[in-house]
Amino acid sequence: MAGYLLARAGVPVIVLEKHADFFRDFRGDTIHPSTLELMYELGLLDAFLKQPHQEVRELRAVINGQTVPIADFTKLSTHCKFIAFMPQWDFLNFLSTHAKNFPSFQLLMQHEVVGLTFDQQRVAGVRAKTPRGELEIRADLIIGADGRHSIIQARAGLKREDFGVPIDVLWMRISKKQDDPQQSLGFFQQGKLLVLLDRGDYWQCGLVIPKGGLDDIKARGLQQFQNGIVSFAVFLRDRVAELDDWSKIKLLTVQINRLRNWCRDGLLCIGDSAHAMSPAGGVGINLAIQDAVATANLLGEKLRSGPVCVDDLRKVQARREWPTRLIQAMQIFIHRRVVTGRSSDRKQSLPFVFRLLKSFPVLRQIPARFIGIGPRPERYCSSGG
Ligand SMILES: Cc1cc2nc3c(=O)[nH]c(=O)nc-3n(C[C@H](O)[C@H](O)[C@H](O)COP(=O)(O)OP(=O)(O)OC[C@H]3O[C@@H](n4cnc5c(N)ncnc54)[C@H](O)[C@@H]3O)c2cc1C
Fold this sequence. Notes:
Elements: H1 2-8, E1 13-16, E2 30-31, H2 33-41, H3 45-49, E3 54-56, E4 58-63, E5 66-72, E6 83-85, H4 88-99, E7 105-108, E8 112-119, E9 122-130, E10 133-138, E11 142-144, H5 151-155, E12 160-163, E13 167-175, E14 186-189, E15 192-198, E16 202-210, H6 214-220, H7 222-232, E17 250-253, E18 256-259, E19 263-264, E20 267-269, H8 284-304, H9 310-339, H10 352-359, H11 365-372
Helix pairs in contact: 1-4, 1-8, 8-9
The structure holds flavin-adenine dinucleotide (FAD).
Flavin-adenine dinucleotide binds near residues 147, 272, 273 and 279.
């Protein structure tokens, strides 16, 4: 998104992606109302909505067997009053196809950044591994948008604060049938959580487990694991045997961390590279996109005429840091109270906050705003400055 917006503002941009395609399983599928609003501002919304997707106007969770509406997006002030569920590879293909219409945009696939180059203390470029050998690319600004295992962040020596996360996620596919119940946010049960993402002909399943708990789960055997899935979602009973080998069940480690300084001379980190997000609340993609908009707004015009100074880069952090802190605080709260904590471990009871959401529909607008728009939403300035 940062590449698209900067190229649109007339800045020559090269995006390096280490894989040959965007077809990675380990990404969320949520395109939030604020991102859809951005698509509207960019004139891309109609084309975007023609891509296969599902529109979710209300998020529901099944908590200890009771269905509870959590967030109602229909009252938002955006053009799209829903979350669009679209596999992220489709979204990235869509975005990069449109970015390629700008003469100043280049996308280089199979270019893996392996290091940085420096002019004294200033970051001057990257070294990338490509199918044709190693390459050095120099640039006025390097933007680290390489996710939660960011090599750019590590090579730049930026200091990071890690916040303990008590969970990991097991990630697997189970086929989907036409008469399956409609998608809900997830199934909470006695302190455990199963999330199902509708990917057309299959469910992408995420089972939240205690951090480091996979060995114990394996020791109890596949049969018990399958039974555990069925205890959340009975309709999967006739298909859960598809998970007949541990190789079909992938462990995704969840982290929450944040850089103290998101930049140094010649380099800026945004998205998970600056602040790794947990899947809790499904807001990390939105936050990363909002960082990209702020980057294009604050730096686009200056980058058109050359390098920017570190004070300019700090403005991006100054703008985006408090929304990040707020959302990460919420994620830490969800981990402690809702997923692994007191709010969900009593057998049949509905935690207080969910009883409120169930009884007072108007309250569902609060999570809708937080998830769908987020704190301090960014609007794209077409001047890029
Ligand atoms: C299990 C799980 C589920 C999640 N579900 C959701 C959800 O439903 N909704 C939501 O909003 N958030 C979700 N999140 C959080 C969300 O995935 C992240 O916050 C978001 O993807 C961050 O976007 P990003 O662009 O910063 O990084 P990423 O999406 O991680 O993108 C980084 C990109 O950089 C590329 N790359 C990495 N290293 C290099 C390199 N050295 N050289 C070149 N390219 C490189 C990668 O291939 C990738 O394309 C989830 C997180 C997890 C762990």
